[in-house]
Amino acid sequence: MKKSDKKKKNGILVSYLWSAPSLILISLIVIFPILYTGYISLTNMNVYHWFNYDLIGLQNYKEALLVFDSGFLSALMLTIIWTAVNMIVQLVIAYVLASLLNTKGLKLRNGYRTLLIFPWAMPGYVSILLWKTGMFNSQFGLLNQWMERLGFSPVKWLADDLSAFICCTIVNLWLALPFMITIIDGALQSVDQSFYESALLDGAGWLKRTWYITIPSIKPIIAPSVVITIFTTFKQFDVIYLMTQQAGAKTGAHIHTILTYAYENAFITNNYGYSSAVSMIIFVLLIIFSYAINIKPKEES
Amino acid sequence: MRRRKGKQNLKLLLVNLVLILVCFVTFVPILYAFSVSINEQNSLLGSDFSFIPKQVTLENYRKVFTEEPVLMWFRNSLLLAVSTVVISLGTGVPAAYIFSRRKFPGRNVILQLLILLYAFPSLLSMTALYKLLSPMGLINTKVGLIIVYTGTMAVFALWNMKGYFDTIPIEIEESAMIDGADPIRIVLKIVIPLAKPTIAVTAMMVLIYVWNEYIFAINFMTGESTYTLAAGLYSLQANETSGSWPVFSAASLLVSLPILIIFFAMQRNMASGLTSGGVKG
Amino acid sequence: MKRIIALLVSVTMLATLLCGCGTQAQSLTEEEKNTIVIWHDKEEAVSEALLGELQKLVPDVTVQLEYKSNLTEALKMVGNDPKAAPDMYFFAHDKIGVYAEMGILSPITDLIDRQTLDDAYVPMTLEAATYDGKLYQLPVYFETLLFMYNRLYMADENVPETTEQLYAYMEEKTRGGHYGFVEQHSTAYYSAGWIHGFGGYIMDGNGNVGLNMPETIAALEYHKKFVELMPGESEYATVNTLFQEGKAHATIGGPWLVSASRAAGMDLGIAAMPIVDESQIPISPYMGVQGVQVLKHAAENKTEAVKKVLNALMQPDVGITLAKVSGCAPAVEACYESEEVTADDVVMAMRETAENTIPMPNRPEMDIMWTVAADMLVNINMSGQDVVTSCEAAQKNAEELIRKMQ
After folding, report:
1. Chains that touch C (3 or more CB pairs under 8 A)
2. Which of A196, B263, C226, C235 has the smallest C-beta neighbourhood within 10 Å, fewest atoms?
3. Which range of residues forms the domain containing residue B35?
């Protein structure tokens, strides 16, 4: 009895020792900033009290709640739509492409895969800049040059909300697909081929095989990556900000996600206490949101 | 039999066509950058753009190498990337393995907490991290950046590899355990070889993240000589008063090349999946 | 046991990794005291010229010029941390309010005698660089936007003298991919000229927000018809490229556009800003003073080296050299005795225009105004929203955000 207790304790200790380096790093880089932000949100750290700030209690939160007006609500809605649209399109396209890459007898597989991954090899802001000025610019963009050649009149791609949303989605897909394709492609390769053989013998069609064999098999493997991508998409700031709202280069579209909205309504005040309070509230909202739609990865027991 | 083969060939032809088309669409912006970078005319924007420039020049590539300290940036990037990948895997593999294999108190809480914490908007982490690193004297050092990068990618590394470990059946390890092998040897000799694809993907992800990251690099490193490639590129970025688009395009493409080469080289590793009969997905 | 040792080793390694580099020098060595790091965001020609002059004038101080593309944000983060912050930075005067309130800037008068400064500089530049009664910047040169035209299309005698003439010109010439006139119509820095031309302002020197003033509203109502004859994009890349490629006949731009256009072989003309018919005031863009600010830690710990650099920057030679490469007007009065300066038509046009315009406010609140005003302009010019409603909303928003700064 005593011995097994000790062994159990030892087991726990070993488990924590093995994971300690990783957990320490995460505590420092991921958890510490959150705690620190929480602390700053209780102070009056701003331009006028940069070094000599004091604890002022929940006052910042009282102010911060005022940000959560109708503008914030519509930004929240848009963020949810943005995440849903992006994730669905991304998963479908990535799945189709990964399946095509896994077609039996495809000789150029590695070549295609390297080409498809190229966007991943470029820093994000470079890609966004390329798309914005190279593709979508209404005067010189490639799209409008093609439109003109085909006899259409030029379009202001980023000026109108809907088309700007679509353009941002395209850019985001371009940036995110290489990762998704890699993940799904890797997962597809781990699916046991013998399943398919027996299914083929049973006469199951492509759709049936996909639905009953492939998807259940790859689901646990890709789930963590998908969840992380959902959060990244939710938190996406660069694409929307750089495409439509960059200072000095606004395009007239008003697509605000909660982050760009918070940026324009809190962060620009240089009031760290106040913007920390806004960040903390957004963080809590995100947690509630992820519980509400139940995207936390499930542990199969 | 022959008909089936004919059908197979047709299918392959179609698949190839679709993939070529997709690759082309993916490549439009990149081809654009390429043709800007080899064009004599000095502009990213031009009303009479064509993919094949009228006068080809390699001048912009020469400028990248001679006028900017790219080779130093390249060395910095390489050093950071390799160290981060090594530390990420060194810390991530044991953690992921334990979280996959052992059920210990706090395990589920930690797992779920980690992914939720990942949701924190990173806009504000910068200042907090600065306040953390500065008293330790880690601002303006590579070590500081490596810690930031490893920590940032640690949640992903842990989750991603744990997910894959979960699919590797425990029986092989159990029999090795009975044979008296200690856990470190089991991980090194059995688990890692089986988990090669996920380790390769994780390493790739970390590498690419470090390679492309610029926000921490420009804020935590002061001075051009300590920049990474992405940070250097960011500072090259054309703005209203300075900068040259063609040089910038040329540099962007050059920066992507090493990643592509590494990716191509790693393909085989990522492909050597779980094909042996003993393991099911 | 073996595994525990292995783990302990790795944990210790991590710990040393974390703490190992914590060797901090308490006091500066002679070499460090003699090294001055200056952050800047200028084009290479300017920074190289500046570095060259400083190396010549203060050979015993090691000066490092470092280009920072996100200078203003980076400064907010590193603050006064001697390990990461620069000793000085070279930037426009409009941010001094923020940094002075943060407490990271040292007044220049702590290092250089006030009377010496008053004797040497164009008075307006010192005024612009004064926040809350203290001088926080040693001016180097000042700049503003200029009316430029391409002589290939617009003959000297056709240059519009009033805004109505400009509009007539635009109506006539804007067609088939060509534009009579382009500007960055929806950014606060460029639109401020029109607002000032009607007697309005974005924010005055006392921190009052003027977005819903009748004058501001009138200016934006009037400006709208010009915007309709300009491209949909408002950022610099589109506007500058159109002008440099000869697709736009005239523009309002900064001095950096002069050298770029001339290098591209354009016969460039510079003219006085058109006068607004209604108010009889010319379009009056902001004036910016570019100069050097000293951080507190450097002023305290590297006093001698900092003084040497500042004194060097006061030499007329520096002003003359930088004026030539930047096209801006030197802030040191004595520079105008040099023929190199008086013979340069861009520099002289710059001085004349700049002296009659309004300096950018340097209050911390201005940080917010750039964004709020740009949002308002985009709403009016690009999203087609009602001018009065947009101005009122922006006014309210600005006042709210300013309140939240405290």
Report:
1. A, B
2. A196
3. 2-57
